Amino acid sequence: MNTTLLRLALAGASLALAGPAWAQLPALGSVTLTVPAGLGGGGSFNNERTMQVPAGFTMAVYARVPGARFMAVTPEGGLLVSQPGAGKVSLVRPGSAGGLPVVTDFATGLRQPHDLVFHTIGSTTYLYLAESNQINRYVWHTGDLTAQNRTVVIANLPDASTPELMGSYAHALKNLALDGNHKLYLSIASTCNVCVSDTQSDPKRAAIYQYDADGTNRRLFAQGLRNAEGLAFVPGTNTLWVTVNGRDQTPYPLQDNTGQYGQVVSSYVDNHPPDLFTKVVDGGNYGWPFANPNPDTSTGMDNMPFDLDYDTNRGGAVPLTTFTTISKGIPAHSAALGFTFLQGTAFPASYASGAVVALHGSWNRSTPAGYKVVYFPWNAATQTPGAQTDLVTGFISGGSSWGRPVDVAVDPQGRLLISDDQSGTIYQLTAPAAPLATAPGAARAGAAQVYPNPMGAGPATLDLTALPAGPYTVAVLDLLGRAVQPSQPAAGGARTPLPTAQLSRGTYLVQVQGEQFNQVLRVVQQ
């Protein structure tokens, strides 16, 4: 969902372009996870948690949602969160007067609900909600607090209730996306680690199907995608990208002098095959279960060639020429799940051309992999991702995990929301606001100022003289983005008092919004 760009100045961080494609990003630094009173219940937060985030950023617990999986920001700025284990979707709304967020049931009685997508056709906005056995569509009305008037647009999807599967379906959760032509793309994941039967079923599993937005006109779009959980279109295009979990316990596929051909060797399994972050083309076949991408050539994780899968295709009955090149690999067993493109969001401009991916973490690797959120810079010229870099780490302590990221989303204020199904938490990653201004000075072109800062007992001055004439709205927020006093109007090209008498000592954010403007300033009340 496109939102007005939130202009957050990164204090002390160099944002100069390092080349034609990538920006220089701040290095990671350690911060203490902020856990507001009332949100610390459960073993994950019995101890203070130290996170690694970009310099100047903060990380906080925003809400507690048990088993939190996929998320969607509502048109009003709320947050929907799926909870497959509980069979429901929760709605998270900001609390009033600076209180904790309010978490309520939005939809209940569902069968393993998972992905959630808003999509507008004409003047109607729909919410699409995936259950394991069907896809639902709801007309969204401003201010909806519960799901109303469900329409099932796709029924009878395979899950553990499908008779031929006899109660066993390893990856029954469904994920979806809709493009600019109102086509719906649905991932039907594999039932198993590796099996040929999924390629012979109807519908095929480990595949993506395309439908019209009303669920009609099904056709196979791509296959060989073992468990595609993240689906998204490059903003401004109809180019689909997905994240995919690779298979486990892969036998050594090479007939070489190691003598390991056909053996399951931990040193090989640890790094093979990579998870996928790849472009998906119409008619593509991405290998599973007959071939696996090989990261050990000169191209590394980019445009990987394939090796024949020993278990299903050692003789090459399905030739390697069958398969479509993988765009980008992610270290094996990281369990890449939800992702979002940052283009058009309010996340800081230095990251604005890139993608953020949640890595849920490995269960069978000698040394854990994943358990973090990573960033891929995006080359607009080639429409390809650059090298993976860490954005948020720290979910492992003492060799074991206390949290597992699932999905990511950007809220209207430019904060990155991260879901964690292990601790049942939604986190906020917040960028630093503008540097402190201790006295009035020459206003930066097109920017607001607050002074004095730090503020004292009297009102501060909000200086909008550098902004175009017109109406603006000013809100004072705490560091979790919650309003601490009523918003007030202001006029561009003028100065206005900013009441601060009711604020206790501490650091706050002042958000200035206009029709084509959105800026956040950091202020200190002494």
Explain the overall architecture.
The structure is a single chain. Residues 1-21 and 435-439 have low confidence and may be disordered. By secondary structure, the chain is an all-beta fold. The longest helix has 4 residues, at 266-269. It contains 2 helices and 40 strands. The strands form 11 sheets. The chain has a 5-stranded mixed sheet, with no helix packed on it. A 5-stranded antiparallel sheet has the order 16-17-18-23-21, with no helix packed on it.
Shape call? globular
Helix content: under 10%
Parts with pLDDT < 50 across at least 5 consecutive residues:
1-21, 435-439
Outline the biggest β-sheet.
5 strands, mixed
> Number of helical segments?
2
Distance between the termini: 38 Å
Q: Overall mean pLDDT score?
A: 90
User: Nearest-angstrom radius of gyration?
Assistant: 24 Å
Give the structural class.
Answer: mainly beta
Q: Which strand order do you get reading across the main beta sheet? A: 12-13-14-15-19
Percent of sequence in beta strands = 35-45%
What is the number of strand segments? 40
